Amino acid sequence: MDISIPSKILEKILKINDFSISTQYDKYLNYWPLLLAGFLFAILFVPIIGKIAKKWGVTYQPKTKRKGREFDNAEKAIHEVETPALGGLAVTLPILIAIPILFKLDALTIPILIASAILVIGSTLDDIFNLPAKVQLGYQLLAASTIAVSIIDLSSISFFADDLLNLTSATWSTTILSIPLSFVFPGDLILIVWIFLCINSVKWVGGSPGLIESYSLNIFILLFLIAVRTFSLFTSTLSILIAGSLLGLLYFAFPPPKIMSGSSGKTAYGFFISVLALISGVKFSTTIMLLALPIIDALYVILYRYIKYKPKNPIELIKINDTSHFHHRLLALNLSTKQTLLIETSISILIGSLAILTTGAMRYFALIFSLALVIGLIVFINYKANKKEIEKERSPESKYSY
């Protein structure tokens, strides 16, 4: 699905009217101005954002619970010095600027712009004021619902071949201010849950310096490659712009970090991955492979916390904040933050490459292999980390350690 008409500015940037491909790589190389624009924006504005964040006290303190977070875990603050948040604004602000400039404001772009603004404003306020879990849940669901009631409908799902699973048993449609809206049941309910899952599973990757920036950069590059091949101009344009911004941000966020994405970035990355993948017509199995590591890790952590802490309701479950994520377990094996970043990024590149290289029946085997690989890795790393922690507790020297 890609119904937006690009503006003349975008046509000039990408030379759409002169798209005669002299080599098989030209269709990708035409996007280099957008990659460069995102990179330069981040390089120039991240230091400014960092200074503002420090001035306002919007920072992460090492080994310290954040104010207003009753269920926060000080052990998760593994950075060594006070580090400013709000770095994600260097990625999200270019998107809010680019959409109305590069594309016609229509039934596709306006809901995406509104949903993006909801997430950016809500998550920035979360960075500043440490909003309660219920409020975070509220603006995330509001953004997801904005997409669901737009013309971006999940009317069917394609997993492996051309066979579609129909998700349209009922349809509601109307027009507000000349903008057509629609909602299909149960497809768009599933879409809300899917976007919410993508937002939080990717957000939870950000527990180790530079990890979420590196991981998201990889996913957006893979999405760009897919979108160019499927002629989805909207997805390819935004994906490469975001990739450029993330590359610039990663320069500052790489451990030891000078700035972090904060909620203002972490909340948006998963949202854009899920929405851009849907718009470009990526098969559901491909999207699952692209997000296999964070989604399976999130589901594993939720199940682990439910069994261990026995929360009374979903809100209480969301508030639980421990060190059970995959990157925490890698760190528990005495790996450095840089090693953890490289391991998780390598896994995502491997599985993501399988996602875009496989087609037809091969995608079925790639999906099963990818899921089995990630589940096996998570279980194995947790087993080794738990074993190491038990051995440390039993060692005679542990009673004298600080």
TrEMBL record:
Catalytic activity, EC: 2.7.8.-
Keyword Cell membrane: yes
Subcellular location: Cell membrane
Location, primary (coarse class): membrane
A GO term for molecular function: phosphotransferase activity, for other substituted phosphate groups
A GO CC term assigned to this protein in UniProt: plasma membrane
Keywords: Cell membrane, Membrane, Transferase, Transmembrane, Transmembrane helix
UniProt xrefs under InterPro entries: Glycosyl_transferase_4
TM ranges: 31-53, 85-103, 109-129, 141-161, 181-199, 211-228, 234-254, 266-282, 341-358, 364-383
Enzyme class: transferase
Membrane topology: Multi-pass membrane protein
CDD domains: GT_WecA_like (cd06853)
Biological process according to GO: cell wall macromolecule biosynthetic process; cell wall organization; lipopolysaccharide biosynthetic process
PANTHER family the UniProt entry points to: PHOSPHO-N-ACETYLMURAMOYL-PENTAPEPTIDE-TRANSFERASE, UNDECAPRENYL-PHOSPHATE ALPHA-N-ACETYLGLUCOSAMINYL 1-PHOSPHATE TRANSFERASE
Protein name: Glycosyl transferase family protein, UDP-N-acetylglucosamine:undecaprenyl-P N-acetylglucosaminyl 1-P transferase
Source organism of the structure: candidate division WS6 bacterium GW2011_GWC1_33_20
